[in-house]
Specification:
- The protein has helices spanning 14-23, 70-78, 100-110, 126-136, 141-154, 170-182, 200-213, 227-230, and strands at residues 26-39, 42-55, 59-63, 85-90, 93-94, 111-114, 188-192, 219-223, 235-240, 243-249.
- The chain starts with 13 loop residues before the first helix and ends with a strand.
- The longest helix is centred in the middle third of the chain and has 14 residues, at 141-154.
- Strand 9 (235-240) and strand 10 form a beta hairpin.
- The chain has one domain (6-249): Rossmann fold.
- By secondary structure, the chain is of the alpha/beta class.
């Protein structure tokens, strides 16, 4: 962490802290975040007193062994889960103590999620999967459809729009998932092992997409082992046993 990090300055109240985060260009701030899971009589510390900062338009890679807690950390940053303790600010909003309804609305507009297992809705076509978050945000049907078609064509899936997920290959499903994540044009993209279990050609296509996204004024946070994605990083966070082992900022 930076020596002058505002995370450790207890003199700020929430409003002043948000102003200072904005002034410094910090889009995401996690302060002493803890997330535990109870498994029988045991408590697993998936995220163990973690503090970090992500700058606006930064490309951040979280790397570490399987089971290190990377996915949990991503979920907390994006508002898919809430911490047991600690504070998370995302785009000037304190999301760590939001109720589920408020978190859902926040995620819908502000974050695009790309999951390792795609998480497409099995009963919806590729086009309908991409339209789904736009429908929830209140966009009119014609705009939804036009944007979905545009995004799927960009993913080279223009001829697969009417296919259900089970009719698509793993790589095609992941490209639909990326299009869905981009549907509401969110400022933050969070991706959990987006190239895992994909063939070489599809993995390269997705890496090229992220390379383009890096120049599109979006903040990108990825958990990955993929060396080609790691090479795109402005910041690399090494994570193990729920803790940050090392933070490395890349000079461009």
């Amino acid at each position: 962490m930076k020596e002058d990090s505002i995370e450790e300055n207890s003199e700020f109240d929430d409003s002043n802290l948000v102003k200072e985060l904005t002034k410094q260009g910090i889009l995401v701030s996690c302060i002493n975040v803890v997330k535990n899971y109870e498994i029988g009589d045991f408590i697993v510390k998936a995220v163990d007193n973690v503090s970090l900062e992500v700058m606006e338009n930064e490309f951040v890679v979280i790397k570490g062994p399987s089971g290190a807690g990377k996915t949990t950390l991503l979920n907390l940053i994006g508002g898919l889960d809430s911490p047991n303790s600690g504070t998370i600010y995302n785009q000037g909003v304190k999301i760590s103590d939001m109720d589920q309804e408020s978190l859902t609305l926040f995620r819908l507009v502000n974050s695009g999620f790309i999951f390792q297992n795609y998480n497409l809705i099995s009963t919806l076509t590729a086009e309908e999967n991409v339209m789904f978050p736009m429908n929830l945000s209140g966009m009119n049907f014609e705009e939804q459809r036009n944007r979905a078609v545009k995004l799927l064509k960009e993913m080279r899936l223009g001829d697969r729009r009417e296919h259900l997920p089970f009719q698509l290959s793993a790589g095609e499903q992941q490209r639909v998932a990326i299009a869905r994540a981009m549907a509401n044009d969110p400022p933050v993209i969070l991706a959990d092992e987006p190239t895992a279990n994909l063939d070489k050609k599809t993995s390269q296509f997705i890496r090229d997409l992220f390379k383009d996204l890096k120049t599109s004024d979006k903040t990108i946070i990825i958990a990955t082992h993929d060396d080609d994605l790691i090479e795109l990083a402005d910041q690399i966070i090494s994570f193990d046993e729920g803790k940050i082992i090392e933070e490395k900022h890349i000079s461009n």
